[in-house]
């Protein structure tokens, strides 16, 4: 029912693409990260919570239709509905049904409820299209409460030592999660311009999340004393970042689970927190769909598809242009990571 083309995932009967990476007439969007939501299509369909960021990134004048979760639309007899993916605010799995056959395109997802995104809901289907960003057994996430406690203790210690705390985190998704859960009794939270813009867009759209201040040129060091500043990876080794000296630099990413990542990014500390499912989460999600066939679209595709086949789930890897949005993504030697890990 769905095919993989040079423009993206295509439904012939419904005549639409899901997360196309080239301009098309009708694009159905799982979420607002730019590797899944690209400029140039004529019409867009997305979840209503994605609308503010889609308009911010793609333009206020895009032709955008939005729908809530679990409310189907029909296109030439094809039933289309959106279901929570738990990845970021507005992220959705796309369920497509035609003549009794059901496919689900997951986009990106995580199973832990982050408190700001609608929690992941498994959707039963015949065929499931999954990511595998962290599709190796070495990737295992602690509960987020543990990680936030680690961050708060690091922040408090820095404050006591007269240092600012700078957290590197992706501006859409990760930053909102941090802002919502960090202990602001310790100090003030500021945002890099990119972080502030995304956060403020959600706040102005009426989402029940915390607001922050943008770090501006007219601010002084005393105002930053003991503060925590959230910035994207592009801020590392820039004059903007050096204005906070003395500071401690922390990285917030699933990739810091791999030894050496923190050192390569000149960070002082790493916090393992991701908006993607870990190895066990991926397997749990797939099992819950009861799908008889799985396509693996991005991440450790070959390794993850091979493992699924070994445990009796028919799976195949598919080359796509997803996964290129992640500013947190750290270059690693994939072959070394994959070697010998399937038995763990």
UniProtKB/TrEMBL annotation:
Residues 324-344 are annotated as: Disordered. Residues 335-344 have a biased composition (Basic and acidic residues). Coiled coil: none annotated. Gene3D superfamilies: Ribonuclease Z/Hydroxyacylglutathione hydrolase-like (3.60.15.10). This is Putative mRNA 3-end processing factor. One of its GO terms (molecular function) is RNA endonuclease activity.
